[in-house]
Write a structure and sequence with these properties.
This protein is α+β, with helices and mostly antiparallel strands and 94 residues long. Helix content is 31%, strand content 37%. It has a six-stranded antiparallel β-sheet with strand order 1-2-3-4-5-6. The protein is globular, with a radius of gyration of 13 Å. The relative contact order is 0.17.
Length: 94
């Protein structure tokens, strides 16, 4: 199922506060890490508040975030891009 303002019934602004737009599959979120000119597929399990488990098979990497930003998915939803995409993966991959 695709999660978006249209499928949640929320406005674009409200949807961004609670959800990250993307695809869900059996309670796992399908996503990707965009690092430099590469894209790596990910599987993510998330919990309210910023508990995030990210599996990136191609990188042989599992990452866990913990947080306390309850009902603020727009904040912890950006952690992957801000931290993994921009900092972690570029530092371990050429």
């Amino acid at each position: 199922m695709h999660v978006s303002p249209e499928t949640t019934g929320l406005s674009k602004e409200a949807c961004g506060d609670f959800y990250g737009e993307g695809d869900d599959a059996w309670a796992w979120h399908l996503g990707s890490i965009h690092a430099k000119d590469r894209v790596y597929k990910t599987y993510q399990a998330t919990g309210n508040g910023g508990q995030v488990l990210i599996v990136a098979p191609e990188l042989q990497m599992v990452v866990v975030f913990t947080g306390g930003n309850y009902r603020q998915g727009g904040i912890w939803g950006r952690w992957s891009a801000d931290i993994l995409d921009a900092e972690v993966v570029p530092s371990i991959r050429d």
